[in-house]
Every structure is written in structure tokens, then in C-alpha cells.
């Protein structure tokens, strides 16, 4: 009998963009669709899985290894909402050591313990900080640990800038059997111009939008309760957005090498959009008679 195919996904994004919120809701949604999921938090803040665990932080692998050289699988893996498995890699104290060391150590330990096979998983989702220049954060891409990479980005320039840098890294490691790009999860897209900006960036870099996720008070309410939206408000419109995203991720098969913009191209692109938005604002002012 052949081994079960496990889909390994890395989700990157600029800090503060809503990456962990999106990842946790994606994990929850995949579990609701009937899949067995492991979420590996790769941010040194160790808060990736907190809403899957009703607001409870779990011990990180680096913390556990301080007291035990060879921990058992059940000592590093915790169960969250709808039986989503949760792991936090952890990191060093702020200002000390390499922030990516937790990822490297965690991946090695999970391999050693044959965690993916033992848990009989359908999905492994790595939640990775995407705007830190550190070799550890490139591990899921560089080592081919992930099969597909998705990035969470809004239309804000710094989020797009981080996504473009990620695309550069994916292209660099693509000739070394690195993970390829599945697409962009467009977060906080509430205005038509936001959709137009992120759509244009996706087209210019040879990728696609997986889903548009609007900014929602429902998400804020859920997180204040220490829960994912799928748990706190399962019948909400926002929960359906995450279920739609999960369905698209489940159907996704072919990832590609992105075509990142060069620095000057990106600056020109941003400048052009700035002028377009200024013209749009002027047009709105003239048509409404409002003052700026």
C-alpha cells in the first residue's frame, strides 16, 4: 500500500498583515471540511495557534528541548479546535540568536518523530513570518519541506513589498527543488481600489488571487474571545469566506515560479498607482462637491 499523500503548505506574510489569523482560520476550515490538519507556528512570538486553542499558549519545541533532549510526539503536539493539531516552534529571547532557529530545530524533530505519518495527516500548514531576512525562515521553501507557498498580502505597499521579496526567494530556490508559489490570499480587501491594486500586482508577477478576505468585525470579535471565526461564528459570512478559501486550497494542484518585479519596477508600479488613486480622489471630490 502506498503512503498517504500529505499536502504541505507554507503561508508567508508581512508581520501584522493578518497571516496567523488567516492561517488559523484556514486550518479550522479545512478541518470542518473533513481533513486532518497540523498547524506549525514558525513565528518567534509563538502565537500562531492561540485561537485554535481557545486563547491558550502552548509550550514551544525550543522550550521543551531545554528540559528534554528527546521528547515524545505527544509532548510537542497539542490538539485544538475540531481536532486541529498544533505545534509552536518558538524562538530565542528578543535580541538573542537567530529567530529562524526554532523552525530549523522543529522541522528536524518533526521528521525524526515521523510526526506527519504518525498523525495520519492530510495537511501540514507552516505559518511563517515573511518580512524577516533570516535563513531559518526560508527553510520551508529552500528545503522543499512545503509543496506549495501562499502569501497573505493587502494592497498596502509594504505588504506587497514583502510579497515581492518572497517571490524572489521562491524563484531563487526553484531550481533546487524548492517549494513553488500557489497564489496570494488578499487580506483586508474592502475597497474596489484595493482589489484593483492587488489584482494588478498578481497579474504582473505571474500569479493568482486565491481568495479575497475582507476586513471584518467578526474576526476581531472572535479573537477577543480567543477563538477562530469558524468556532466563534460558524454561520457568519466571514466563516464562509474561509471555507471558500479552504476549498480552493484543497483543489489546488499546480504551483508556479513567480516573476517578481525588480526594485525599480516595483517603485514605478507603486508610483503609478499613487497617481491613479490621486486622480480617483480628485474625481470623487469633484463629483460630490466634498472637501478633502
Automatic annotation (TrEMBL):
<keyword id="KW-0067">ATP-binding</keyword>
<keyword id="KW-0535">Nitrogen fixation</keyword>
<comment type="similarity">
    <text>Belongs to the NifH/BchL/ChlL family.</text>
</comment>
<keyword id="KW-0013">ADP-ribosylation</keyword>
<feature type="binding site">
    <location>
        <position position="134"/>
    </location>
    <ligand>
        <name>[4Fe-4S] cluster</name>
    </ligand>
</feature>
<keyword id="KW-0560">Oxidoreductase</keyword>
<dbReference type="GO" id="GO:0016163">
    <property type="term" value="F:nitrogenase activity"/>
</dbReference>
<dbReference type="InterPro" id="IPR005977">
    <property type="entry name" value="Nitrogenase_Fe_NifH"/>
</dbReference>
<protein>
    <recommendedName>
        <fullName>Nitrogenase iron protein</fullName>
        <ecNumber>1.18.6.1</ecNumber>
    </recommendedName>
</protein>
<keyword id="KW-0547">Nucleotide-binding</keyword>
<keyword id="KW-0408">Iron</keyword>
<keyword id="KW-0004">4Fe-4S</keyword>
<dbReference type="InterPro" id="IPR027417">
    <property type="entry name" value="P-loop_NTPase"/>
</dbReference>
<dbReference type="GO" id="GO:0046872">
    <property type="term" value="F:metal ion binding"/>
</dbReference>
<comment type="function">
    <text>The key enzymatic reactions in nitrogen fixation are catalyzed by the nitrogenase complex, which has 2 components: the iron protein and the molybdenum-iron protein.</text>
</comment>
<keyword id="KW-0411">Iron-sulfur</keyword>
<feature type="modified residue" description="ADP-ribosylarginine; by dinitrogenase reductase ADP-ribosyltransferase">
    <location>
        <position position="101"/>
    </location>
</feature>
<dbReference type="InterPro" id="IPR000392">
    <property type="entry name" value="NifH/frxC"/>
</dbReference>
<comment type="subunit">
    <text>Homodimer.</text>
</comment>
<feature type="binding site">
    <location>
        <position position="98"/>
    </location>
    <ligand>
        <name>[4Fe-4S] cluster</name>
    </ligand>
</feature>
<dbReference type="InterPro" id="IPR030655">
    <property type="entry name" value="NifH/chlL_CS"/>
</dbReference>
<dbReference type="GO" id="GO:0005524">
    <property type="term" value="F:ATP binding"/>
</dbReference>
<feature type="binding site">
    <location>
        <begin position="13"/>
        <end position="20"/>
    </location>
    <ligand>
        <name>ATP</name>
    </ligand>
</feature>
<dbReference type="Pfam" id="PF00142">
    <property type="entry name" value="Fer4_NifH"/>
</dbReference>
<keyword id="KW-0479">Metal-binding</keyword>
<dbReference type="GO" id="GO:0051539">
    <property type="term" value="F:4 iron, 4 sulfur cluster binding"/>
</dbReference>
Amino acid at each position: 500500500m502506498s503512503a498517504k499523500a500529505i499536502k504541505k503548505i507554507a503561508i508567508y506574510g508581512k508581520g501584522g498583515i493578518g497571516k496567523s489569523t488567516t492561517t488559523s482560520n484556514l486550518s479550522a476550515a479545512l478541518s470542518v471540511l473533513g481533513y486532518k490538519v497540523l498547524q506549525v507556528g514558525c513565528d518567534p512570538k509563538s502565537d500562531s495557534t492561540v485561537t485554535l486553542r481557545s486563547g491558550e499558549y502552548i509550550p514551544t519545541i525550543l522550550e521543551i528541548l531545554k528540559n528534554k533532549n528527546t521528547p515524545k510526539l505527544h509532548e510537542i503536539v497539542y490538539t485544538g479546535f475540531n481536532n486541529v493539531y498544533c505545534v509552536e516552534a518558538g524562538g530565542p529571547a528578543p535580541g538573542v540568536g537567530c529567530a529562524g532557529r526554532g523552525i530549523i530545530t522543529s522541522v528536524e524533530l518533526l521528521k525524526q518523530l515521523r510526526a506527519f505519518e504518525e498523525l495520519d495527516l492530510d495537511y501540514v500548514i507552516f505559518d511563517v513570518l515573511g518580512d524577516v531576512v533570516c535563513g531559518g525562515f526560508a527553510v520551508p521553501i529552500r528545503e522543499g519541506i512545503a509543496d506549495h507557498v501562499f502569501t497573505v498580502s493587502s494592497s498596502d505597499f509594504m505588504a506587497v513589498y514583502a510579497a515581492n521579496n518572497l517571490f524572489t526567494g521562491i524563484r531563487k530556490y526553484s531550481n533546487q527543488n524548492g517549494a513553488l508559489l500557489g497564489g496570494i490570499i488578499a487580506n483586508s480587501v474592502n475597497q474596489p481600489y484595493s482589489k484593483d491594486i492587488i489584482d494588478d500586482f498578481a497579474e504582473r508577477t505571474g500569479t493568482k488571487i486565491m481568495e479575497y478576505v475582507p476586513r471584518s468585525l467578526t474576526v476581531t470579535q472572535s479573537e477577543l474571545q480567543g477563538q477562530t471565526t469558524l468556532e466563534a461564528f460558524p454561520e457568519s459570512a466571514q466563516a464562509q469566506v474561509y471555507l471558500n478559501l479552504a476549498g480552493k486550497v484543497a483543489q489546488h494542484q499546480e504551483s508556479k515560479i513567480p516573476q517578481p518585479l525588480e526594485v525599480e519596477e516595483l517603485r514605478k508600479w507603486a508610483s503609478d498607482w499613487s497617481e491613479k488613486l490621486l486622480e480617483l480622489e480628485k474625481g470623487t471630490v469633484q463629483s460630490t462637491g466634498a472637501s478633502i
